[in-house]
């Protein structure tokens, strides 16, 4: 004879409705009660029919993950593997599955998101980027579909729940760090200016120079994709200038690795000839040669917070929008020195 919710409720000495709420991982049920009910389920060998429950509740228990570009390119950057580790950990804890966009072009990704939302394949989505005038973000707002952004939305961020670092302040701090080391010729190597993270870090860089009364030189500003090749391109351009920089603020560790390898190939010594500071503090930053001074942005925590914010919005759609700022810290290693 099949074990039912009523059997579990009787053994756990609770109402059947409480068992249902425990199965749904309702946050209003105490951890003590959840433990008692789950122990009763395990003792009786009861396994809830999640598919049937999803049909009744019209929930999928699935979160959609939207990548900024094709998965092939994105996964070259350790940032995405680490943020997905945080997302997966929290989603698993809350008994949610993950559905990831797989398009190659922006148009393919957009169509995939439309199908994902209109086909009700997911309960909500997390965007792993923030782009200026992003069609996907606009679509999700028009559909009034639950979503969270990792990054700061470009338009009316107060209206969209997002998880981010204080990127402007972080870039200001690292630029000032180089200024305090005596550097005046400091270049900025960033990603596309369509990405809000690049815009914020560029503004922080400029703010630090202005505060120190150092002129902002347009020839020292370089934007490319957050890939190793972007860093290699930057070195080629910046070091062909009549007065090359003595220090670089690079807005992503993967680009910085490209910078370091190209500098080495060209016979430049880091930090003796040029100082390099970067962002993200991925694991390889500690093991590069020289070890890379980088801003720890707590990527894993960004993923955890994004999932929690999204699940809160799924469960309580009327919740006010939220802005979560994850802390950062400059990790000083061997790639910078006094000018």
Helix/strand layout:
Blueprint: H1 5-12, H2 16-23, H3 31-44, H4 50-57, E1 62-66, H5 71-74, H6 78-93, E2 97-100, H7 106-118, E3 124-127, H8 135-143, E4 147-150, E5 162-164, H9 167-180, E6 186-190, H10 196-211, E7 221-223, H11 228-238, E8 247-250, H12 253-265, E9 275-279, H13 283-287, E10 293-296, H14 299-315, E11 323-325, E12 329-331
Parallel strand pairs: 1-2, 1-3, 3-4, 4-5, 5-11, 6-7, 6-8, 8-9, 9-10
Antiparallel strand pairs: 10-12
Could you write a compact summary of the structure shown?
The protein has 339 residues and is α/β, with parallel strands linked by helices. The chain is built from 14 helices and 12 strands. Helix content is 46%, strand content 14%.
Give your account of this protein's structure.
The protein is an alpha/beta fold and 339 residues long. 46% of the residues lie in helices and 14% in strands. It contains 14 helices and 12 strands. The protein has helices at 5-12, 16-23, 31-44, 50-57, 71-74, 78-93, 106-118, 135-143, 167-180, 196-211, 228-238, 253-265, 283-287, 299-315, and strands at 62-66, 97-100, 124-127, 147-150, 162-164, 186-190, 221-223, 247-250, 275-279, 293-296, 323-325, 329-331. It has a 6-stranded parallel sheet with strand order 2-1-3-4-5-11, with helices on both faces. A 6-stranded mixed sheet has the order 7-6-8-9-10-12, with helices on both faces. Helix 12 links the parallel strand 8 (247-250) and strand 9 (275-279). Helix 7 packs parallel to helix 8 (135-143), helix 9 runs parallel beside helix 10 and helix 11 (228-238) packs across helix 12. The chain starts with a helix and ends in an 8-residue tail after the last strand. The model has no long low-confidence stretch (mean pLDDT 90).
């Amino acid at each position: 004879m099949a074990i039912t919710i009523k059997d579990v409720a009787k053994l756990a000495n609770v109402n059947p409705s409480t068992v249902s709420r425990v199965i749904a991982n309702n946050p209003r049920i105490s951890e003590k009660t959840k433990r008692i009910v789950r122990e009763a389920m395990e003792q009786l060998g009861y396994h809830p029919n999640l598919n049937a429950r999803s049909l009744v509740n019209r929930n999928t228990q699935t979160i959609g993950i939207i990548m900024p570009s094709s998965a092939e390119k994105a996964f070259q950057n350790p940032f995405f593997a680490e943020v997905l580790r945080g997302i997966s950990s929290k989603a698993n804890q809350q008994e949610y599955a993950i559905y990831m966009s797989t398009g190659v072009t922006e148009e393919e990704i957009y169509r995939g998101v439309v199908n994902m939302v209109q086909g009700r394949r997911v309960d909500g989505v997390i965007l792993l980027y923030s782009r200026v005038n992003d069609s996907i973000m606009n679509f999700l707002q028009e559909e009034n579909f639950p979503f969270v952004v990792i990054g700061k939305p470009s338009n009316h961020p107060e209206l969209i729940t997002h998880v981010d670092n204080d990127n402007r302040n972080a870039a200001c701090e690292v630029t000032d760090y180089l200024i305090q080391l005596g550097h005046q010729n400091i270049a900025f190597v960033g990603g596309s200016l369509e990405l809000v993270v690049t815009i914020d870090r560029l503004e922080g860089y400029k703010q630090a120079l202005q505060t120190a009364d150092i002129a902002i030189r347009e020839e020292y500003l370089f934007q490319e994709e957050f890939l190793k090749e972007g860093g290699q391109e930057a070195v080629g351009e910046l070091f062909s200038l009549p007065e090359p920089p003595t220090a670089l603020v690079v807005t992503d560790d993967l680009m910085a690795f490209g910078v370091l390898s190209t500098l080495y190939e060209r016979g430049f010594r880091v930090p003796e000839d040029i100082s390099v500071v970067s962002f993200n503090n991925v694991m390889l930053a500690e093991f590069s040669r020289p070890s890379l001074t980088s801003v720890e942005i707590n990527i894993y925590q960004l993923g955890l917070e994004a999932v929690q914010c999204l699940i809160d919005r799924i469960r309580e759609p009327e919740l006010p929008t939220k802005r979560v700022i994850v802390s950062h810290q400059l990790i000083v290693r061997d790639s910078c020195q006094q000018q």
